[in-house]
Structures are given as C-alpha cells and as structure tokens.
Amino acid sequence: MRNLTTITEQYTMQMTLPLGDLEERVISKRTLAPTFKAYDNKQMNMILDVEALIPVHHVARVIDEMIEAVPDELLFAHYTGGGRSAYHPKMMLKMILYGYSQKVYSCRGTEKLLQENIPAMWLAGMQRSALKNHS
Length: 135
Fold this sequence. Notes:
It is a single chain. The chain is mostly helical and 135 residues long. The chain has a domain at 50-134. Helix content is 36%, strand content 0%. It has helices at 21-25, 59-68, 72-76, 89-101, 107-116, 118-123. The longest helix has 13 residues, at 89-101.
C-alpha cells in the first residue's frame, strides 16, 4: 500500500520490509514433524518398591508409624483363634485411619482406595481385597 503522493526518493511508506533472502532461509515450524516423549501404557513395568512412590511427609507414613508403635499383644488379645485366617489387625487399623483421613467412611470406599490409591496399597501391603469381604 503506497500513497503515491508521499513517495519521494528519500521517503517511502511501505507496509513490509525488504528482507529478501532472509524470508527464504527461515524454516517454518509448521513443516517440522512433531516430537513426543516415548509413551506406551501397554508396556509392562515392574514396581519393586511402592514405598518409594510416597512422599516423605505423607499422612500414610504418619499412620504407619503410629500403628506400628502399638504392641501386637494388645491387638492379638481380641482374637480367639481358629477358623479362617484373618487380615492382620494392624493393616486393618491403618486402612481405617487412612480412609478417614481421606474422608472415606465406607468399606466400598476403602476398597476403591485399595484399588486406586498408591499410599493405601502400601499400607495394606498390596492386599487389594482386604476389606471387600468385611462389609
């Protein structure tokens, strides 16, 4: 767009700059292929230590230390023995307290925690169906 009345040899009103060869050398990012980090959710992964996935100051660690401090004899005194083997009372207490800390109050909610929540899996020792049969 030029206004012919304002063009002189020393003064020009142009909308574009005469870049010439510079425009040809610039590679448009739109012509490059996209690059992504490797991703394969079907790849088998082995997690050797679930505890390493839990932050140091997580509430699950506090609950674990608190329940482990309770002597076994205090808990075992309430079990008569015989019958089908029961889940460890410390594991059950840990799951109940962790569930309450996550505002989960039902057995079904606790079971869902055991299936989806890594700290809950760690507290239960990877026993996912720990509370399923106790509702």
